[in-house]
Amino acid sequence: MIKNIQEQIKILKKETSTAVLAHSYQSEQICEIADYCGDSFALSKLAQQVPQKNILLCGVKFMAETAKILSPEKRVFMPNKNATCPMAEALDYELVEHLKKTEPNRKIVVYINTTAKIKELADVCVTSSAAVKIINAMPEKEIYFLPDCNLGDYVKKQCPEKDIKLIQGGCPVHASVTLEEFNAAKAEHPDALVLIHPECDPKLVEKSDFVGSTTEIMDYALTSDKKEFIIGTEISITEHLQFRDTAKKFYALSKKITCPNMKLTTLIDVFHSLQDFNSAFEIKMTAEEIEKSKKCIDKMLELGR
Ligand code: 13P
Ligand code: SF4
Question: Is there an atom of ligand 1 within 6 Å of 71 CB?
Answer without folding.
Answer: no
